[in-house]
Amino acid sequence: MSKPESVVMPGVATVDVRLDSVQAIIQSLVLMVRSEDLSGLSPWIYETAGALTAEQKITHRLVVIGFHYAVIPSRRWKDFPTYLAHLENSDPLILRDKVLDFYLNYEPCGNAGKQIEGNQELLLADADYFLEYLGTRFGEDLVDPEIELKAHQLLNDPGKMQGVIVSHLKFMWQEFYQMEWERITPMLTDAVMAFEEIDFSSMSREEAAKYITGKDFDEEHWNLNSEEINQLIFVPSTHTGPYLGRFQYKNALGVVFGARLPKDTKIHAPDLSINEITIRLSALADDVRLHILKLIAEEGELRSQVIMERLELSQSAASRHLNQLSATGYLIERRCSGAKCYSLNGERVQDTLKAVSAFLLCD
Q1: 295 or 266: which leads in pLDDT
Q2: Do residues 322 and 292 make contact, with C-beta atoms less than 8 angstroms apart?
Q3: Could you tell me the pLDDT band of residue 139, with boundaries at 50, 70 and 90?
Q4: Domain extents for the chain?
Q5: Angle at 227 between CA 260 and CA 10, to 5 degrees
Q6: CATH 3.90.700.10, applies to 286-361
Q7: pLDDT digit string (tens) for 103-124?
Q8: Angle of the 178-196 helix axis to the 270-284 helix axis, nearest 10
């Protein structure tokens, strides 16, 4: 495949839609950890997560969550095996320091509790202090003590940590992902080729991002207009469903998105069309989600609490269903007086019907 063109937006940034096997695969591995909480992902995610033994699941969570910042690359690599070789040949101390440096430089989240100072020596010396420090940075609800305690032990043994990371990633590649990557690469290539035809020169960063992914980008979260960013990279994935992944290469902001075709493309990619339609329809293939859409269609914008009460849903169930409907674009979410409110996106519903009709009734 020829290298995608870089399109320059007026004095702002370049936009690349391209294959990046390492970022796409890491995103898939992370989604496997969340497969019990997220619906609408590729069946491959659920099947692969279900195929792991209990011990393998713990190791998987340790590698992709506990050592996440040692695993994610800081630049683009030719392919996943090449990146695995790089990890295997890296200095273990450098891998360890990538994790610790990220923790030490991370800006605390807004809802974190009291702040405590840290340095490498303190973080490595005391496991309880390590857990407390992570809780102040990321919020205690997002810290898994079991996994982080295992991570802390191995951070104090960088060579063993490196061995665990490399052996598990090799296992996941050889056992599950190598054949899958061969299967999905043609679909991803079709998506990249289709976006190569698009002229982004008159679009703002937000417009380009929405056109490519089909989603609105919250500036507070994504910071697309940062002066430090001079390139936007979009990596298609057939596994991520309606959800987005994020990565960074120096002055480039990367987004992993659900592989799709742009509007009015001349490229015919039936396998990719099926993948996108399946993701859209999976959000509708549930009684609860259909009832949520019907309720909002009849009564207009509603707060999440009202939806929970009307349909007798638990908070966790309501959150899961509303997140998927928002991620797939059927609901428009906004903040209203401190709560989340949802309204129906009728245009998205019509687009889905048209997509199904066009695929089934095409000449």
Answers
A1: 295
A2: yes
A3: confident
A4: 7-20+184-258, 23-178, 286-361
A5: 65
A6: no
A7: 999 876 554 456 778 899 999 9
A8: 100
